[in-house]
Amino acid sequence: MNTAAEHDRSPAAAYARSAEAAGRAPSIHNTQPWHWRVHPDRLDLFADTTRALPGTDPDERMLLVSCGGALHHAQVALRAQGHLAQVRPLPDPAQPDLLATLTISGDEPATAQDVRLVQAIQLRHTDRRPTVDLAVTAEQVDELRRIAGEFGVHLHKLTRDQVSELAVAVSRAEEAAAADPAMQAETAAWTGPGRPADAGVPPEFIPDRRPETDVGEREFTARGALAVGGGHDKSSTYAVLFGEADDRAAWLRAGQALSAVWLHATALGLAVLPYSQVIEIDGSRAMMRRILSNLGYAYVVLRLGVADPDHPLPGHTPRFPFDTTTTIDPS
């Protein structure tokens, strides 16, 4: 956005700035499967199904989770501009790709926490490096649990035995993905040399070798260039975001909760690695439900820990330009 737009205090300009900030949200394979339409009186979020992954994500679970993350990023950006936002999820049954409408419902000065969260949008990243020997505190887990609960989503810290079960579920998911040509093709399309220039996962964000961790990570179609160091995940905390419902509205809320937890974790200095592969495969998703004693449906698993400061990340994964993911409606 240009400098003049940055100083424009109209609601439309605030919506546009929020849509731009939302472009930094996490998404499966960094597909960024959202499109914003900025109106003078509202901001509409649409699913961009041209970036869907029918082989990997046939029910569009992770697409909705990804879009929910973008929705929360936009909420954070509006709040940091001093605006209160009202969200109407899935507002029009006749438009299934219209996922939410954001409207400014009032004004209130941004707090220091609001500023920290919008700054966390610029710092947040997926960290596939092993963590170091520093534990996540019980107080930090409790805070993240409270944050998830604001969206009607539960955060459950896995026990040692449940982490072992998670490792099996991840292994099963990776085996299923490796045997599925459609999934392999989609992974290659978004992480290989032919990936879009402004999306996907470049090799510098993919480990150069398989990390020595108790819970395996996603297997990409080729080795990357990210130095993983010699750490392990022994001090990591594994947690699952879950809820009682398993439908589009629930997946969108799960994405909002994921974004909120991730931004707060970033502000706390924690590194986050999501495990969505156990949700993408029917069998491993059922295993996660059993781990939860059938109390709910798993939306995504998170590894929380402290990254090795001696092996910094190269920066941020690429993002589509603003005018690719956003349309300005002048009427």
Automatic annotation (TrEMBL):
Q: Where is the composition biased (Basic and acidic residues)?
A: 1-10, 206-216
One of the entry's Gene Ontology molecular-function terms is:
oxidoreductase activity
Stretches of Low complexity bias are at 11-27
- Gene3D superfamilies referenced in this protein's UniProt entry, alphabetically: NADH Oxidase (3.40.109.10)
Query: InterPro entries under this entry?
Result: Nitroreductase-like, Nitroreductase/BluB
Q: Where is this region: Disordered?
A: 1-33, 189-216
- Name of protein: NAD(P)H nitroreductase
- What species is given as this protein's source? Catellatospora methionotrophica
